[in-house]
Give the backbone structure.
Amino acid sequence: MIEMQDVWKTYANGTHALQGVSVKIDRNEFVYIVGPSGAGKSTFMKLMYREEVPTKGQISINGFNIGKLKPRKIPYVRRNIGVVFQDFRLLPKMTAFENVAFAMEVIEAPKRHIKKRVMEVLDLVGLRSKANREPSQLSGGEQQRIAIARAIVNNPSVIIADEPTGNLDPETSWGIMQLLDEINFRGTTIVMATHNRDIVNTMRKRVIAIERGQIVRDQMRGEYGYEF
Amino acid sequence: MNFSTLLRHLREGFKNVFRNGWMSVASVMSIIVSLFILGVFMLLVLNVNSMANQVDSQVEISTFLELNVDENLRSVIGEEISAMPEVSEIRIVPKDVGLKEFRDRLGENADNVLGGFDVDNNPLPDTIEVKVIEPETVNFVAQKIEELNEKHAEKPIMKVNYGKETVDVLFKFTKLVRNIGFIFVGGLGLMSMFLISNTIRVTILARRREIGIMKLVGATNTFIRWPFFIEGALIGLIGSIITVAVLFFGYSQLMSTIGQDVFMQMLNLIPLSEIWPLMGTLLIGLGVLVGILGSTLSIRKSLKV
């Protein structure tokens, strides 16, 4: 369902972020992307949600070549991809409910439908009771749960999570991982970049290691493989 | 776009105005300041214009006939003058009527000045008062009237008078005031648009993050633009309504102050009811337009995420 063929990415400043990456991720997989800082993980993630376009090569999601997408069509592709970040990226002056509902308003879902569905996902992430709080009134873990709720509210086929536990303490991180595992179990493909050794080594999934812009390791039920 | 999306955009646009608190106040203020200056100038230009027009319409050519011209010849000349295409109307003032009007004009002093003169002993010539359609043509028409003398053996026209110097100076002055006024109004319009788009750009810079998130969850550019569009329109509307209210209150105060002063009454300001529809519509329309332009122009850059 996600397929990269000989993808190269060179930035304007001459950095070769990715050099000939080919990979195939199937429906319903859970994949960790690991590797040292600056090895190309972030670029790899950004290419998948079309924040960046490849310099060379092809990326397709559900059969759509998103590298060649017309700008006008980008929004429609993004609706099928949920994105979660290390810094949550919630809108500060909106309540938890509004932040999640926002993703549905954007695709012009009917209002009745929005209310029902938002409460449903807030239930799933365990924050139904805090629906009316603003991000500043929530803990880091709770904010990330809201961000995840926003990512899944439109039933995307893929979740791209760029270090979702990077800002969280270990205990909270486990809560987030269980949530992502649950979402994966319900049928959503998850691609997650991480630096968290414990998580990768404990919750065993497919591990793809990127170094110097190339895939150096791709294991089913793999290990983190780095000291840090 | 469906109805609930439209409602959402409206709601968001309104909310944004309040969410951005002081920046909205700043935007509204900059609209008020520029529109106010613009409005004051418009009032000035409109009034100078109307005064100039009044003066224009008062410009007339007095054609004095020789004393020996009889009634027949008088009306022949009158017809010849009204046949000129530049002339709008003429009034023949026989010397009796002229004397009576002169007396009326002088009022109490009439007997001092005109003592001893009456219908039988009348020093005034018959006069034909000529009004022209375009005030700028008085010069030319006056000349044409003088040339009528050539057609008649009696040389019936004594003198043609139109206050040459006064009229010329007046035309130059009103033209100057109008032109300067229009240049000012145009320049201020541009300046206020620049001010507002800058203010809104600042609020949008602060909201790049928000726009980035909107794009990430799959919002189209049109969708993102709408609330900003409404916000800009609303800011423009609020600002321009305040401006219009202040301007009209001030103008009506000015009118009533002037109304009490005999000397100032000569200024003859345009009544509020005549200015209101044009000015109100224009200023509010301009405010809304400038608000919308400002917000949509300044969002363009942020959309390329």
Notes: The mean pLDDT of chain B is 80. Strands of chain B lie at 60-65, 87-93, 127-132, 157-161. Chain B touches chain A at residues 1-2, 4-5, 8, 19, 209-210, 212-221, 223 (CB under 8 Å).
